[in-house]
Amino acid sequence: MNSMKIWQRSHSDHKRAKWLWTGLYAGVAIIAVAGSFSTPTSAQQVERIAAVVNDKVISVYDLRQRIELLILSAGLPNTSDQRRSMAPQVLRGLIDEALQTEEAARLNIRVTSREMDDAVSQIERANNMPAGGFENIVSRQGISADAAMNQIRAGIAWQKLITRRVVPTIDIGEEEIDSVIKRIRAGQGQTQYRVLEILLPVDDAAQRQSVLDLANRLSAQIRSGAEFTGIARQFSKSASAATGGDIGWIQEGELIDEANKALATLDVGKVSDPIETPDGYLILQTSDRRKLRTPGEEDARITLRQLVLPLAKDASEIDVQSQMSLAQQVAANTVDCNDFAEIAREMGTPQPAEPAGFRLGDLNEGLRRVAAEIGVGVASEPIRNPNGVQIIMVCDREEAGALPRDQIRDTLLRQRVDMLSRRYLRDLRRSAFVDLRV
Predict the structure, then answer these.
(1) For 239-262, how does the pLDDT look when each residue is reduced to its tens digit (9 = 90+)?
(2) For tag attachment on the chain, is the N or C end more exposed, with fewer CB atoms within 10 Å?
(3) Total domains in the fold of the chain
(4) pLDDT at 403
């Protein structure tokens, strides 16, 4: 799925500007295009047809412009060999984009001028460009602004279509979340890898060699200094392309066998050779590695409030008992953290706007023991310390090893949306008339 791209600017050692796009991608297969990708004059490019998609004509000029834009954004060498090798990939992307735009129009999904203006403004803000700078910079590179605008427009339309037609059909059940949590906890104590991926799928066996050639080229260019994340955003057909190929922390054995074997021998920062899979080819990079430990009670996170009734260092036993008695009365008459904060302020202990957060193991031994035993919203028994008599109340507690269910739900939703949007696009391809002319 070619969705709206947000450009981020960086500089090479030679101070040549390049642009990295982020967006949500669905799988798009690479097709073999007969013949070479030549470089005719502009007039010839406009007249020649690269492909016909239903009633939509994609010209050689459209194809060439998009290739130039992609090379610029990924920071790749702009050579004739590079352009020729990329032509099949880019043409298939333009075909899918035409199908997405046609389907959005069929469903009466429109992209407004305001949405386009907002998208361009976001690009300009992200790259510290003045208003109007986006089109100027693209034009200075000899690329038509329409090449970028058309892709942005198609991406917005497809995102709106998926949001309306696909997302409402997805229901992530609590049992699915429980299953993920169980798997994560089972992996505690194992090695984890922070992994980036580039996925190049193969739909037809006849395409496999051309896809492998591209995968080898990309792998070599990354090793030569090209940025993995920029290439992943432009070439990968996985949803992780939105984050530069970053799929997060992966446990030992979590990927398919071929990828697991590659990870086991891949040093941090290194890039794998293309890995053949049933679906196509993967290029992996390990950005970090860590050994998970099993969390203990001391890893629990708490928020708490405290009240201190001061005592002089040479306070008499009578004074001590008086403050202890007062502390017990306070503890017995507070019902929650808000009430506790109000009483503490009245008795001279300033309170922050929000309860202070701590890892249980970071508290001193005395406080740690008390905080571990009392319930949430229950004031502790008075605690004698060098400054007086202290009472604490735990306002919230997150037990050690607790996992964010909402975050897991969002991850599962993104995976499901990616799968269904790829299926949607595949069905559009199957029912379309596509005539390749180059």
Answers:
(1) 777 678 888 887 776 777 888 888
(2) C
(3) 3
(4) 64
Percent of the chain's residues with pLDDT above 90: 22
Rounded to two decimals, the pTM is: 0.62
- 354 burial (CB, 10 Å; 0-12 / 13-18 / 19+) is exposed
| Largest CA-CA distance found in the chain, in angstroms, rounded | 102
Q: Is residue 179 domain-shared with residue 302, that is, in the same domain?
A: no
Q: By 3-state DSSP, what share of the chain in percent is helix, strand and coil, each rounded to 5?
A: 50, 20, 30
Q: pLDDT confidence of 232, banded at 50, 70, 90?
A: confident
Which CATH number fits the domain that encloses residue 304? 3.10.50.40
Residue 150 and residue 20 share a domain: yes
Measured CA to CA in angstroms, residue 218 lies from 26, 41, 72, 86 at distances of 19, 28, 15, 10
Helix, strand or coil, per DSSP, at residue 404: coil
Q: Same domain, yes or no, for 152 and 200?
A: no
pLDDT(211) > 80: yes
Shared domain for 393 and 413, answered yes or no, is no
Same domain, 242 and 356: no
